[in-house]
Amino acid sequence: MKILVLNCGSSSLKVGVFEIAEKATEIFKASYEQFEAEGCTYKITKDGKTETGEAPLGDIAAVLVSLPHILAGYRITQLEAVGHRIVHGGENFRTTAVLDDPTIVAIEALTPLAPLHNPANLLAVRIAKQVWPNLPQVAVFDTAFHSTNPPRATTYAVPKAWRDAGLRRFGFHGTSHKYVAIRAAEEIGEPLRDLQIVSVHLGNGASVCAVNRGESIDTSMGMTPLEGLVMGTRSGDVDPGLFGFLSRQLGLSVDKVEAALYSESGLKGLTGSSDMRDVEDRASRGDANAQLAIEMFAYRVRKYIGAYAAAMGGLDAVVFTGGIGENSPSMRRRICDGLEFMGLRLDHDRNQCVELANHAAPQIQAYGARVRVIVTETAEQLMIARETAAALAPKATVPEPIPVAVSARHVHLSRPAVEALFGAGYHLTPAAPLRQPGQWAASERITLEGPKGRLERVAILGPERPRTQIEISRTDGFALGIDAPVRDSGKLDGTPTVRLIGPFGSLNTDGLIVAARHIHTNSDDAGRLGLADGMLVDVHIGDEERGLVFGKTLIRVGANAVTEMHIDTDEANAADIRVTGEGSLVADLRAVAVANRD
Predict the structure, then answer these.
(1) Which residues does the annotation mark as catalytic?
(2) Which part of the chain is CATH 3.30.420.40?
(3) Which of 183, 287, 383, 563 is paired with 591 by a 20 to 30 Å CA distance?
(4) Under CATH, what is the fold of the domain 2-141?
(5) pTM of the complete model beyond 0.90
């Protein structure tokens, strides 16, 4: 599938053409900037050769209208789709969307949330639909990757009327953060679902993202791209009280303050220049303002890395990308120095000699360091092409029903835990077999105790396991007063401690989780349904109008497993399931394959 990708900003245009087959290959790349009445500059790369020059095209619209002729000149024809970068998707666009007229109108309504970005993005959409009226056009949103951020990360503590009006955190650079997280997992050689990564995108716009086991759980930008780090011309975090202060002291209107925070702040406000290369040069010559700007920039990033490591409860890798993240060894060192207490140490020689050709992702941590430090070029265009292909791939609901079972709170005990709770030499009493072969519910019950309360008569499931695991719902966590993470079964490192109380004694143990929803199946059923172990699928439960789709459901293939989906009581309540129910797979297997291939 040959896909044209358009990334249209307010003053520049990036163009890419990708062939999506067994691998995603970029076959054409161009950028247009420095627009003036008489023309613009361009840079075009094809077949490994790069050409630069000037074109008599006075604005972005003129370039877009000329693109078919430009592409034909480089023998780029027979396009099959157009993918667009759209900065702000608001609350409704949580994934890619095919761009029909109602969708375009809905995106346009989001302009107040991204006044500098969405209008430029929509300019490319409208012209592309005129130039290529028969091609499907797809929106890929910067905000979509962050749709998994929990309410505790997205909610501002402001009056309800403001929140009802749409005031909340969204986050941006999602396409970049998603790509570098996937690329880092490939470099590390472990599934992304098993890793805790902080992605650090540093350029004229800058943000940090906590990618916890494959999902964004927090990011530094907020309702707009203004919040968070110090940037080229944007302030990043400020006290919102400055609006009132500046109104009273300097007579500035809200519009003027907002415009200055976007365009006259950040590095530019501190030094007069928004270019980090220029700022670093000035600092080396003794410019005190430039030195302060560099220290502030690095400090803010370091602070966010530490905060996100704490939010995730661990850290496997920090990944640097973006123009500054990729090209400034001194900034990477300034940010990483002082993080040794977390097990993060740079190898200073490796940091100085980073090579990023061909999507390389070199590791630059010191040998023996616990936390990896990786540098890689972001590939937002490539990610947009992949997501566009996935959005246009045929999707169908697999009609064969999947049994759905509600998994109430329960524990799996180790041999030492059984003896601590019930006495030396004690063995649990199987009372009722479960659907999964060899598993059973015990006659015995125990109590869970947390700092806030207790959960009585909690079921024990056998047989014994090498490590104790306690599975509760999110609501149970509030009853106990403990914040249990969502984890796949067996992924227990860094989980919180809870007290187990039995008739013989008590035990404080980690292993408390909210179990990620999953489907047990066997190789025969998996083959028939087109599934594989470790795959993530969506499952539709309920009728067409009021049913729910449970996304990112893990497939677990076992030799003798009975095909059955397990959800917890909170999920069951949302789907109006009491004990058992049925669901159907929403097949989008191509999207999974594309996301994990290159």
Answers:
(1) 142
(2) 2-141, 174-385
(3) 563
(4) Nucleotidyltransferase; domain 5 (3.30.420)
(5) no
